[in-house]
Structures are given as structure tokens and as C-alpha cells.
Write a structure and sequence with these properties.
single chain, about 210 residues, alpha+beta, five-stranded mixed β-sheet, about 25% strand
Length: about 210
């Protein structure tokens, strides 16, 4: 990294070559400097695209699974228990079919914003794919976790979405601790949200209650 006269940093690729005499002794060195700031910026953009959802700006599925793995490692070291919640937007296909994918995208954006507003900064949420979101809640108490998830469900149910009006979500959640693996905990949350939808949607179901 180098600095312009105005103080701005820029990335430089430097190649140094030795100029030698007939005996091979270095006489001097020649440096070739190339400004690669644009390349570095493009690299950062690619790295961001690889880990964040382009629509909502949330971490994507790949990054989210890394978050779950990190939580499991933390649980294994400290004994801390996390709650893993999966959110599925009810009847989302009808929204795309009736209003078009642009309105469907707007719905997902609004839901992502409502989720950001509903949880603390140290809680982690990501878009798993399609109309599915996942939240990793740093909360060891099942009832406290359920209360947080219920507040989100009610908040979304009471929100007025443009064109679409009201809609609902189904929530399934479980705990993750040192005895679990991330994949097992995620499968439990997925099963819980499946049951929430099969029982009529717009509800919160804990895997422990199944």
C-alpha cells in the first residue's frame, strides 16, 4: 500500500529487478510500480458478493452456515446455548404469481428490515434462500427465545406491505449446544417450521414440543 500526495491510500504491485554486471554482481535495481486499486476494489466486491445476499444485504446461506459453525464451536468451548430459528413466509408463491417478482422482492426487503429491527446487534440473521430466513439468537432460555420470535411474528402480521397488504410467517426453532452439530440443529429447526406450516401457518413451533 502507498499514499498519494493528497493522503489517499492506493494499492501498488511492485516488481524489483536487479541489473548485474558481467560477473553477476548487482549494480542497481529497477522498480516497476503499477496502481492496482481498481483490482483490489473489484476483489473486495467479489468477496462481498460471495458472502452476502444481493437483494437484502444480509449474510447469505454460505456465510450463515459459517455463523452456525462458529456458534457451535462457542457452545462447545463455553457451554453457552443458542436458539436457532427458521422463518418461512407464508404463501409467498402467491405473492409472486399475483403481483410479480418485483413486489415479491420488495416484500423480502421489508421482512429483512423488520427482522433487523427486531433483534439485537449480537444476534445473527441471514437469508437461507428464497423466502426463508434464519436467526441465531444468543439466548439460553427457551421461553425468552419464544417471546422474541413471537414478537417478530406479530410485528410482520401487523405490517402493511405495499400492494400485498398483510401477510404472515411461520417460525420453527430449536436450541443448539455443545452436544449438537450445526447440521442436526438446523434440521430440527427446519422440521419445526414444517410443522408450523402444516398446522395452519402464522405460528411459532419449538422442536422440543414436537
Amino acid at each position: 500500500w502507498n499514499r498519494h500526495k493528497n493522503g489517499d491510500l492506493y494499492a501498488v504491485m511492485t516488481t524489483l529487478s536487479a541489473v548485474r554486471d558481467s560477473a553477476g554482481k548487482p549494480l542497481q535495481y529497477v522498480g516497476l510500480f503499477a496502481d492496482i486499486t481498481a483490482n483490489k476494489t473489484h476483489q473486495r466486491q467479489l468477496e462481498h458478493m460471495a458472502h452476502f445476499d444481493a437483494l437484502t444485504g444480509l449474510p447469505n446461506r454460505r456465510a450463515g452456515l459459517d455463523i452456525l459453525n462458529h456458534a457451535w464451536s462457542t457452545a462447545a468451548r463455553s457451554g453457552q446455548v443458542f436458539s436457532v430459528m427458521m422463518v418461512d413466509v407464508d404463501h409467498f408463491k402467491k405473492i409472486n404469481d399475483n403481483y410479480g417478482h418485483l413486489f415479491g422482492d420488495e416484500v423480502l426487503l421489508r421482512i429483512a428490515d423488520l427482522m433487523r429491527q427486531s433483534f439485537r446487534s449480537n444476534d445473527k440473521l441471514f437469508r437461507f434462500g428464497g423466502e426463508e430466513f434464519v436467526v441465531l439468537l444468543r439466548c439460553p432460555h427457551t421461553q425468552a427465545a419464544r417471546s422474541a420470535f413471537e414478537r417478530l411474528r406479530n410485528r410482520i402480521a401487523q405490517h402493511d406491505f405495499p400492494q400485498v397488504g398483510q401477510l404472515t410467517i411461520s417460525i420453527g426453532y430449536t436450541a443448539i449446544d455443545a452436544d449438537d452439530t450445526p447440521s442436526v440443529a438446523f434440521e430440527r429447526a427446519d422440521l419445526a417450521v414444517y410443522n408450523a406450516k402444516s398446522e395452519g401457518r402464522n405460528r411459532t413451533v419449538a422442536h422440543a414440543d414436537l
